[in-house]
Specification:
Blueprint: H1 2-27, E1 36-40, H2 44-50, H3 60-80, E2 85-92, H4 100-120, E3 124-128, H5 136-145, E4 154-161, H6 163-180, H7 185-191, H8 194-198, E5 211-214, E6 233-236, H9 246-257
Parallel strand pairs: 1-2, 1-5, 2-4, 3-4, 5-6
Helix pairs in contact: 1-9, 2-3, 3-4, 4-5
Length: 265
């Protein structure tokens, strides 16, 4: 009886959600769509624990594979909504504290994910993060994945990424650039500004994200785009990333469109 009830609820949702999506799209003003959306793909491991396969497998790798499979679908939704830049956080610096077994499996999944994104030929892929932390084979794969397609979404693939580390790297790059132009330490310090730091961020040349989405119910950024998110709107979704649906994305866009952005004024 319990299984029949679950099947009935699923059937009802299958009918109602397309209608709800259509209604959301109808009332969304895509001229107000955020130009840059950042996403923390959270909840893969918890999804795996709560959704074992037919053999009872609940491994973290299974959850990460399910999460990776969602990315191309999500980028398609971003295309429909006329988003121009998407930053997806695949691996943080802190993640390297996990077991070597899980990290090795995750890096292989990330490599397959990058291959999948490249094979579509639809998006410009830009790796961002402390890439020196990655194995050489993955660094080479990321370098080969770069493209320069006209009128295509820019996809920042954040791997080995940490917000504090990005700011430190930006200041280091600024100081090295100042030195290469003959500036003394005092002159470089006098010349330093927020705009100068922004010019050396991993996302230099791109608009800051107007909307940041985190799945799995966690309501924190964990250092994601720490500098760039100063004026961002945040949207926290209860669904684990593998369960994130188009209707969830449309809800995030609706919530963003209803907010009055005052930029501190």
């Amino acid at each position: 009886m319990k299984r029949r009830g679950s099947t009935l609820r699923s059937a009802i949702k299958a009918i109602l959600y397309p209608l709800y999506e259509h209604r959301l799209v109808r009332y969304l003003d895509f001229t107000q769509t955020p130009h840059h959306v950042g996403v923390i793909l959270d909840g893969n491991r918890r999804w795996a624990r709560e959704n074992p396969d037919d053999l009872g497998v609940t491994s973290a790798a299974r959850g990460h594979r399910a999460g990776a499979a969602k990315i191309i679908e999500f980028l398609g939704w971003c295309e429909e909504a006329q988003v121009r830049v998407v930053t997806i956080w695949l691996l943080s610096n802190d993640n390297f504290k996990r077991s070597s077994e899980e990290i090795d499996a995750l890096l292989l999944i990330i490599g397959d994910t990058v291959d999948g994104l490249k094979s579509t030929g639809r998006w410009n892929i830009k790796p961002v993060g402390s890439l020196e932390l990655l194995p050489e084979w993955l660094r080479e794969k990321l370098q080969e994945s770069k493209s320069d397609l006209l009128d295509a979404i820019e996809v920042n693939v954040a791997i080995g990424y940490g917000g504090r580390r990005e700011i430190v790297d930006s200041v280091k790059r600024y100081m090295l650039d100042a030195n290469s132009h003959g500036l003394s330490m005092e002159q470089a310090a006098e010349d330093l500004s927020a705009e100068k730091i922004a010019n050396f961020l991993y996302t230099a040349g791109q608009p800051d994200p107007e909307l940041l989405i985190r799945t799995s119910g966690e309501q924190r950024l964990g250092g994601f785009l720490l500098w760039q998110s100063a004026q961002s709107e945040f949207y926290f979704c209860e669904a684990y990333w593998p369960d994130f649906r188009r209707v969830d994305f449309l809800r995030a866009l609706r919530a963003y469109s209803l907010r009055h952005r005052r930029f501190g004024a």
